[in-house]
Amino acid sequence: MNKKNIINSILENVKTIIGALIIAIIIRSFIFQPFYIPSSSMEPTLLIGDRLFVSKYSYGFSKHSFPFSPSIFSERIFYKNPQQGDPVVFKTPADNRTDYIKRLIGLPGDEIQFIEGDIFINGKKITRKKIHTIDSVRCGKFSFKVNTYEETLPNGKKYIAAYNKAGTLQNTKKFKVPENHFFFLGDNRDCSKDSRFSNVGYVNFVNLVGKAQIIFFSNDTVKGSLLKFWNLKNSFRFNRLFKKIK
Fold it and tell me: How many CB atoms lie within 10 A of CB 132?
């Protein structure tokens, strides 16, 4: 192969790589992006080690739809309103960089408050039914026994939430959600940094990244890492493969 052919071959390979990168960026920015769950704040809905796809088009697009959040525009384009109960990935207001996933509880203008352990939205207690799905949830390196409930939001959305049996958050101040902001809670109520706390607070609609849709892979990191492939049959959660996220 002469020098000219070598150069042409290199250029073709570079074009192929660049083309593949552009396609990957387009898919990641406008269609689906994979995410990894590193914490237990959404148990029992999402477990540590879950890998999921998030739809980027669900709420329109903002600068946070793109890698490194470039300042392309300050608002959202093709905006679609999120719904109460959606499992949402967003950039934390504290640094506009870290990805969190929580459940959307309060819409702009809503008032949310915990009273005697129950959640009230605009003065009305959300209905919940005690069920038995799990006995305990993780919290960092520890775990605690829980009561689990099927909660129903005003729009009819149902989901499962876990509360610490040894003592759960009983009462809070009244949270008034500002315009163009949202209030989020983790399903693992007593092990979640969410809108109840100042390091998260109310989340601006610009910070929404997308809606969690489906788990495409899940590995129990306590039983073994992916690097220990010989133990994968024990750590791989087959029952969560391609599970739709509710």
Answer: 7
